[in-house]
């Protein structure tokens, strides 16, 4: 065995994954064409430049915030106005915001059970925080890749104090129900005397699919959480919006959870910039995501890929999934190599296993994606599929 071969044998899967991530980020930063350039891919200097964009969005000559006053209060008022709620409170993370909201509701209903989807964020990405930290008891309504139905809510076999709906449901493909389905689900929860909380991390971009303004959508729920960084490109942060009494109690719990941060002006300013600059553009991104999705389907069909899926077929938001019949490791390497060789990033995210011989990735369309025509997408698909292993294709 050569020294090189021996060294290769000692490289772990974690090492290979780290190297691939480094290559993917480098290729993305160097690319001439991408669907989205996210803030967290930028340098510190580039991120700091966002604060300069706040000139004209907020008075930069006022004193900076201390423990949630000043610019943070301005942001809270702005969010409450957009969502049509009595009040809103800033949180450093959405995980904290939702734990606080639902434990407050549990105190009011006397029932710590929270009905939710098996693919919802607290169940998949928060290390059982609801039960381990907040004293809540999650109960799963369904694991199907769609939102729960009114029948599933109405006929669930045990009582629950709150229904949490993630809109859109990210791990199911950024899917949303129809407006009629959503109103029926909310009504079913009300029939059971349960409160309704929206995990609206990405609620901002749901208006196109529902055909309703934000305040009408948020108005269905008793409380709503929204994120500032997922679509608005802020540095981080979240808000919990709802009745004034709930919001005031949430402030007390935010303090207890360690979320009363001394100064938050960089995040708050970046959120105000996002609300001013990004929020009005989201419908445009959603519309173009549907052009991209259709071109991807046509491109893979023309390339002769034996099985390929865009999910949802017509995206509900500006994010969606692509499924292909290959191992994730194969697709991850081909995606990076294609980006390195062509300067065009078709798939800039990680690939996850979706089943035996299947892998999926997420496609995110933002401002840079608007520059792609359908023909550009099909050409990029041809470049990508040409690099797939012949014996697999």
Automatic annotation (TrEMBL):
Top-level division of the source organism's lineage: Bacteria
Keywords: Pyridoxal phosphate
Molecular-function annotations in GO: L-allo-threonine aldolase activity
InterPro entries (UniProt xref): ArAA_b-elim_lyase/Thr_aldolase, PyrdxlP-dep_Trfase, PyrdxlP-dep_Trfase_major, PyrdxlP-dep_Trfase_small
Protein source organism: Streptomyces luteogriseus
Named cofactor requirement(s): pyridoxal 5'-phosphate
SUPFAM superfamilies assigned: PLP-dependent transferases
Keyword Iron-sulfur listed: no
Every Aromatic amino acid beta-eliminating lyase/threonine aldolase domain range: 66-297
Protein name as it appears in the record: Threonine aldolase
Keyword Cytoplasm among UniProt keywords: no
A cellular component annotation (GO) from this entry: cytosol
Similarity comment text for this entry: Belongs to the threonine aldolase family.
GO biological process entries: glycine biosynthetic process; L-threonine catabolic process
């Amino acid at each position: 065995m050569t020294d090189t071969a021996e060294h290769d044998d000692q490289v772990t899967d974690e090492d290979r994954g780290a190297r691939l991530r480094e290559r993917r980020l480098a290729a993305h930063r160097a690319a001439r064409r991408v669907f989205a350039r996210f803030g967290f891919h930028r340098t510190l200097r580039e991120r700091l430049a966002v604060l300069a964009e706040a000139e004209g969005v907020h008075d930069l000559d006022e004193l900076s915030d201390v423990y949630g006053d000043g610019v943070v209060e301005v942001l809270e008022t702005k969010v409450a106005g957009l969502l049509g709620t009595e009040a809103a409170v800033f949180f450093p993370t959405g995980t904290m915001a939702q734990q606080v909201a639902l434990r407050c509701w549990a105190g009011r209903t006397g029932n710590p059970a929270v009905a939710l989807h098996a693919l919802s964020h607290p169940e998949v990405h928060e290390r059982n925080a609801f039960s381990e930290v907040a004293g809540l008891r999650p109960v799963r309504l369904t694991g199907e890749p769609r939102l729960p139905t009114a029948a599933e809510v109405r006929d669930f076999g045990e009582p629950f104090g709150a229904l949490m709906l993630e809109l859109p449901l990210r791990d199911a493909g950024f899917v949303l129900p129809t407006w009629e389905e959503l109103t029926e689900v909310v009504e079913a929860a009300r029939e059971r005397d349960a409160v309704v909380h929206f995990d609206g991390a990405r609620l901002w971009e749901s208006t196109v699919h529902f055909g309703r303004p934000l305040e009408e959508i948020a108005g269905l729920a008793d409380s709503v959480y929204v994120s500032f960084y997922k679509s608005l490109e802020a540095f981080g942060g979240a808000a919990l919006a709802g009745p004034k009494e709930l919001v005031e109690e949430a402030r007390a719990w935010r303090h207890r959870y360690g979320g009363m941060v001394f100064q938050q002006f960089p995040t708050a300013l970046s959120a105000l910039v996002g609300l001013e600059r990004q929020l009005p553009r989201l419908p445009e991104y959603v519309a173009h995501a549907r052009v991209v999705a259709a071109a991807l389907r046509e491109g893979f069909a023309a390339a002769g890929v034996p099985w390929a899926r865009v999910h949802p077929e017509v995206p509900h938001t500006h994010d969606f999934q692509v499924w292909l019949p290959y191992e994730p490791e194969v697709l991850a390497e081909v995606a990076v190599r294609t980006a390195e060789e062509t300067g065009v990033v078709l798939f800039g995210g990680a690939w996850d296993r979706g089943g035996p011989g299947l892998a999926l990735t997420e496609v995110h369309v933002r401002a840079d994606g608007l520059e792609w025509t359908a023909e550009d997408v099909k050409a990029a698909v041809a470049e990508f599929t040409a690099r797939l292993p012949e014996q697999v294709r």
